[in-house]
Amino acid sequence: MSEQVLTSAAAERGPLAMEAISVSKDFRIGRGEILHAVRDVSFNLYRGAVVALVGESGSGKSTAARLLAGQERLTSGTIRLDGKPAKVSNRRDFRRYKSEVQLVFQDPFASLNPVHTVRYHLERPVKLHQKAANVSQEVVALLEQVRLTPAKHFLPKYPHELSGGQRQRVSFARALAARPRVLLADEPVSMLDVSIRLEMLSLLDDLRQRFRLAMLYITHDIASARYFADEILVMYAGQIVERGPAEELTQHPAHPYTQLLVASAPDPDNLGSALRGSARRARGSQAARGSLKAESAAKQGCPFSFRCPFADDRCRRDDPALIQLSPTRAAACWRLDIAAPEVLSGLPGGGGATTS
Amino acid sequence: MSADRATPRETRRAIDRATHRAVRTASDPAASPSTGPGPDPVLDIRDLSVVYRTPAGDVRAVDRVNLALGAGEVVGLAGESGSGKSTLVYGACRLLRAPALVTQGSVTYRGRRVQQPAELLKMRPDELQRLRWREIAIVFQSAMNALNPVLRVRDQLLDVIHAHLKMPRSEARERAGSLLDLVGIPRSRLRSYPHELSGGMRQRVMIAMALATEPEIVIMDEPTTALDVVVQRDILAQIVELKERLGFSILFITHDLSLLLELADRIAVMYAGQLLEVGTADEIHHEPSHPYTKGLLNSFPSLRGPRRELAGIPGSPPDLHNPSPGCPFVPRCAHATDACTEVDMLLLPVATSGDPEHVTACPFVLPDAPAPRAAAAGTPASGASGPGELRTAGELGS
To answer: Which ipTM score applies to this complex?
Structure first.
């Protein structure tokens, strides 16, 4: 992947908090087979800014989050926190790292312990990470920060007594209890009702501003990333295939995979031509559906080539690197001139971008 | 997502022939959306109430709901978790057990294969057994839990076939294979266990299972909730395609109104056990009348069009233990007045709508009344941004 430093769209937001530099993770999946879950992924998280990692299930986005959280050993690459390489090798280092970097999980039904109260869930991290604090005061403050008020009412409750949204608020509070600088949110709203999602995202947004959190927002819903994130990274088969400012990327997707994601999002405004009653759609889906065996297809060439309508021999032979399209945008595709001519022509200096 | 290549058309035809059913929609691919269920709906739920008996008193999970499903129609039932949407449908199919109790109402089924209208709530167990799955099949929410983890896909499909159809073994095996063809899964997967399949494939197996008996009605309870958007889109497209080919009716339960706007012919919005608004997808989208519908419409971020302020719906659903009189949405409603808690809300035609089937439970807010935010973001103007590249993307994703 390109050596040049990618200027993040979020750069002006605040100081650099975390850097992932050419991070890779391989899993052995028996019989000498290796799954490249994350390959050569680089990005920066800035204080007070949100970077969204968007991709379908199995694209490696959750593995990337676990790597950043220090819960998975890197196969290669470096993660830096405040300019210093992250150390998680022993318990003490790991704990210190954890008090800076916290992870919020997708499923609030599974990530809270059913036999413990809300109070227990929050007291533990407060005691662990904030030695001198007045614990019960701090716990109440945490609940108020995630708008679970009155706090007294919620402290003695068990997870099963809470709604999905309330549970997820508790897990936000638990993550904040360590007073982290970096919050990694792994699909924080996808298990919740659509009507609640928005409220939860605005809560996260509020927390980001209040604590100047550097946030990684992992999702498969590119529409929510448009609203919530400053920069979007699109991940496919462990690689970043496109990156750019949220609004620009969603409105003018360059990579064919991003275009597929954008087209797959529910689009109520597109009533006539959409799902309802068009045989054309059903036939076309055969082409795009392909197989999800990303790992097997990715052995050679562009990992998306076998699903891509624009793929040619070169795509099936060589894996494209991220090509810088503008100071803030990049895409890994050989055929951008066919796939997204308007993106190339619309960007300054886009003419020569097809060669890297 | 499956590893299927183009499904053999012959097998599809074979399935159609086997049931002596003409490919009804071959001549009419558009499957014109009707404004109402028609005079003789396949499923007619009338005045249905379901309570959960608890020590603390009855919880009115479904409160006097009327809903009809026309032949070949897709009706969407939208609501938040706990709104009673699943209870309504399961109650109508008599799938609930204690402490749930159907306290009143009637559910009439009129299928092409039954002689006269059948009253589900009065059926004997053996009659019910014949009706279930043969006439009304269900795609359950989480395929992960609904499939038996220790049985191969083939055995689970055969189970359904043997339980509901009289068929020699060899024919049943062939049918299991052709069902997988139908949903675009390679036949080699018959030998797979559920854990060997991706989430999308599992959901397809569930759909295949529901279609095994050529049912008249397929109830889909959040069939795509656990899936990511690309797979979801794919499965929905497949459901629509199958529906057009096989001519069943769909009752689609989901919390995601944006899906229904694209998929359904008619949409019923449910809240706290009551229907608050019923109308065609178009009416719900462009002329929502109830404040709750407007709130739902404004809760999902849109990819197209200009970025707009999203408001969502503040607050949380009411406690059904102690329902307050009047409209259940009052505590969360921006337009609520004192009058809202005094009158019982009835579904009445929307005054400004030309369609008498477009009904709302809120008599106070008209579609064009200034809502807290612009609910009808689907005006032609919003479709204007960047149509060029989205069109290519549309081709891609279809």
So the answer is: 0.73
